[in-house]
Design a protein that fits this description.
The complex is a heterodimer of chains A (164) and B (284). With 164 residues, chain A is an alpha+beta fold. Chain A is built from 6 helices and 5 strands, in the order E-E-H-E-E-H-E-H-H-H-H. Chain A folds into 2 domains: 76 residues, Ubiquitin-like (UB roll); 75 residues, [2Fe-2S]-binding domain (DNA polymerase, domain 1, Orthogonal Bundle). The N and C termini of chain B lie far apart (48 Å). Chain B has 284 residues and is of the alpha+beta class. In chain B, helix 10 runs antiparallel to helix 11 and helix 11 packs across helix 12. Classes of the chains: A alpha+beta (164), B alpha+beta (284). Bound molecules: flavin-adenine dinucleotide and FE2/S2 (inorganic) cluster (2 copies). One FE2/S2 (inorganic) cluster binds next to loops of chain A.
Chain lengths: 164, 284
Amino acid sequence: MSNKMHIKLTVNGEAHEFLAEPRELLIHTLRERLDITGPHIGCETTHCGACTVTMNGKSVKSCTVFVAQANGADLTTIEGIGDPDNLHALQTSFKEHHGLQCGFCTPGMITRAAKFLEENPNPTEEDVRFGMAGNLCRCTGYQNIVKAILATADELNAAKEAAE
Amino acid sequence: MIPAAFEYYRPTDMDGVLAILAEHGDDARVLAGGHSLIPMMKLRMAEVPHLIDLQDVGGLKGITVEGGTIRLGAMTTQTEIIGSDTLTAAAPILREASLQIADPQVRYMGTIGGNVANGDPGNDMPGLMQCLDATFHLIGPDGTRYVAARDFYEAAYMTDREDDEVLTAVSFDQPVGGYAYEKQKRKIGDYATAAAAVQIVKEGGKCTSASIAMTNLSDTPIYSQEAGAALVGTVVDDAAMDAAVAAMLGDIDPTEDNRGPIEFKRHVASLILRRAIARAWSRA
Ligand SMILES: Cc1cc2nc3c(=O)[nH]c(=O)nc-3n(C[C@H](O)[C@H](O)[C@H](O)COP(=O)(O)OP(=O)(O)OC[C@H]3O[C@@H](n4cnc5c(N)ncnc54)[C@H](O)[C@@H]3O)c2cc1C
Ligand code: FES
Ligand code: FES
């Protein structure tokens, strides 16, 4: 029992290999083992979405994935979406539209929003609210988060048109 | 929130899964999307010494519509159900119900097989499968057997599935007529306070058949044959709906919990069923 397993993960393009107990939760692997502390722990019960990462192209709550399940997976966290010198359009937009207050939910929000906009580049307000329903925010009342995501969609579409 | 330790397996075929189940009996369990089982393991309400991940097992995914029969592989996710145009054309109630389950992150992971095998009265798919008169495909050491969704549920978390069996697929006849999946919940992402699945066939202005099943109003899903029968032969007017609701109320047995007292649940069940019948009829 409690045999350690050999785990391989790619996180934000970087390969990692280590031994871990299969029961380790992916959020703990990221934060405590790999020092990738962008994804947060809000509830640890699959409700808040603060721990959201992209795993093999899906938005998942990393508090509800065993590291063993993620073995071999390709992961993206907020650290792989933008950095202080090179902010993603969503990050700039959250800043401009006051899409955050305390900021605790923001890494999960933006990681989810990036995937959502990839799947639906022309969302309505209702689409945004429905597509972001797995992420809770205790500060903003959501209005400015929705605004920021809609503004990002417009901006990315305008940039795409300009490029064509 | 650390679960008890376990041995992890990721076999690539069903023989591998069945061998581990045979060896470890009820100490072993399969893991599909994990979004019911992992929360239970984290709370230590479930302990699984041998955990068999189905993610690499071939042949468990996919949606087919052929010769009037719809088949969903057990590992088909809720997101895949929502995204399938073929399925939505053939049985739109699947998409309507799936959109009301949990939230986007959970739907990427949660599978139809896990949802129906779990046996939680709060799960939405079991009631829907009873409404559609679906068949569950179970494979075990002695081969495959088929069980009607309407016979599968015994009590909360107790089903007809044996410990050494795996659900491989669900199948049902392509439904005809109008449909509705109506669900009352406290907030998005919540399990139902009450939910109703309805399919209705209309011919010459009258209802010729109706199927009704309710969710989270007993320790199993409730297929209410009498509620459906109350609509047959009528023009689905107020009196017919009253009769269907009364029949349904005779079949459910809700308990008080944090979603409300019994009388409230019966009230919500009545409203939800009325709405579902009206919407299904308007689409028939
Ligand atoms: C926050 C949250 C909200 C949710 N809200 C809803 C909701 O509103 N409605 C709803 O219906 N569900 C809801 N769910 C549950 C979710 O849909 C689950 O994903 C689903 O019930 C189980 O599917 P799974 O693939 O994750 O199964 P798992 O969690 O992997 O498995 C569940 C159980 O079924 C067994 N099992 C799984 N697959 C098979 C198989 N092929 N053969 C035999 N046994 C199998 C497992 O051993 C386990 O006992 C919610 C979950 C969360 C975390
Ligand atoms: S910490 Fe994972 S959903 Fe809240
Ligand atoms: S900004 Fe504080 S929780 Fe969202």
